[in-house]
Design brief:
Helices cover 31% and strands 34% of the residues. By secondary structure, it is of the alpha+beta class. Strands 1-2-3-4-5-6-8-7 form an 8-stranded mixed sheet, sandwiched between helices. It starts with a strand and ends with a strand. Residues 11-179 form the N-acetyltransferase domain.
């Protein structure tokens, strides 16, 4: 899928392939250096290798029940969205969502477009009925994005995230039914 961004660039959304590993690793490291809203630390991102990134992509591509969606502006990855189906049979109707966008591309509708594509994918998924996620309580933009897509808060783990500086943030748990 292609869309135009407010800055004139073309946004392309597509699933990841193994050849994306080097540029995706570079994107991942940059993303981790820009925000503390995600679960990985800068140090963890710096220690990843291209081969580990390739294995990560392969873990999605080998299983049609999972989605790894990439957002590109030109040849540069600028966003990722993943949904992993739970592996326990009693929870196989639940998928776990994660999303990230490079800071210089915030407020351009990229998260909304990725969420739209992921919602359509999940609605067509033969087993998924619920998508769930965790979001840091201080990530107000993300919380609003999720609410706009119909996600509801179903729990809050106080001090559920410990940042590298030792401070704590509540982890808000949200979910959405994608099928009745």
């Amino acid at each position: 899928m292609q869309h135009f961004l407010p800055n004139g660039q073309i946004l392309e959304l597509r699933q990841a392939v193994l050849d994306d590993a080097p540029v995706l690793l570079s994107y991942f490291r940059q993303l981790m250096s820009e925000t503390d809203f995600l679960l990985y630390t800068r140090e963890e991102a710096a220690s990843w290798t291209v081969e580990e990134e390739r294995e990560f992509i392969h873990s999605f591509s080998k299983d049609a029940n999972d989605l790894l969606l990439l957002a590109f502006a030109g040849h540069q990855p600028i966003g990722t969205l993943s949904i992993r189906q739970n592996t326990f049979s009693k929870e196989a109707h639940i998928g776990n969502l994660g999303i990230g966008v490079l800071h210089s591309y915030w407020n351009m509708g990229i998260g909304r477009r990725m969420m739209t594509a992921a919602t359509r994918w999940a609605e067509q998924h033969p087993q998924l009925e619920i998508i769930q996620l965790g979001v840091l309580a201080n990530n107000e933009r993300a919380i609003q994005l999720y609410r706009n897509f119909g996600y509801m808060e179903y729990g809050r783990m106080q001090k559920g995230i410990r940042q590298p500086d030792g401070s704590y943030v509540d982890n808000i748990l949200m979910s959405k039914r994608v099928k009745p």
